[in-house]
Amino acid sequence: MKTAICYYSRHHGNTLKVLQAMADVGDIDLIDVTKQKAALADYDCVGFASGIYGFEFQKAVVEFAHQQLPQSKPVFFVYTYGGAKGNGAKTMAEIAAEKNCPVLGEFSCKGFDTFGPFKLVGGIAKGHPNEKDMENARRFYQEIQAACEGGMKR
Ligand SMILES: Cc1cc2nc3c(=O)[nH]c(=O)nc-3n(C[C@H](O)[C@H](O)[C@H](O)COP(=O)(O)O)c2cc1C
Asked: Is the CB of 118 under 6 A from ligand 1?
């Protein structure tokens, strides 16, 4: 099973760290949405991933999904956040619904955050994603893989 995860990760590379843990246990291409387009039709399953900025997925990921996500493709969502995830992946779930894409699951964990005033106190969610977060991320992807492969056999 081949998976693409289309991501945006800039603040501290927190989201990318989580995705790299997932890529340890699966056949995953990590696609930076600011750098490349992708033939998402060629993948069995597509993930979208972002840090949370202003309570939402970064706009480039939302736009990428609007433009590139094929109809009916199984999807999942991954995000990291400092302490207030807001709407989380809600906008992404709406795009998936518009395109009749089944949502296989959602993973989130805290990510080190030094945005704005948090910088003055040395940041929040220090040390995250930590080893436990990575372990949870690996397990999550294995569940996604099982769900997607189950769907492919049906
Ligand atoms: C401009 C900006 C806005 C942010 N907004 C939020 C937010 O609304 N809620 C939150 O919990 N964290 C917020 N954060 C913290 C990030 O979501 C968190 O550090 C995340 O792990 C960053 O992911 P990245 O390192 O992959 O970019 C914000 C960070 C930045 C730089």
From this structure: no
Return the ligand 1 atom nearest residue 50 CA: 26
In this structure, which residue's CA is closest to atom 12 in ligand 1? Answer: 82
Question: Is any atom of ligand 1 closer than 6 Å to the C-beta of 124?
Answer: no
Find the 127 Cα to ligand 1 centroid distance in Å: 14
Nearest CA to ligand 1 atom 19: 113
**How do residues 39-91 score in pLDDT, each as one tens digit?**
999 999 999 999 999 999 999 999 999 999 999 999 999 999 999 999 989 99
The distance in angstroms from the start CA to the end CA of the chain is 15
CATH of 3-153, one of 3.50.50.60, 3.40.50.360, 3.90.25.10, 2.30.30.40: 3.40.50.360
Per DSSP, 129 falls in state: S
Residues 143-154, buried b or exposed e (16+ Cβ, 10 A)?
ebbebbeeeeee
DSSP string, 15-44: HHHHHHHHHTTS-EEEEETTT----GGGSS
pTM of the complete model: 0.97
Residue closest via CA to ligand 1's atom 22 equals: 51
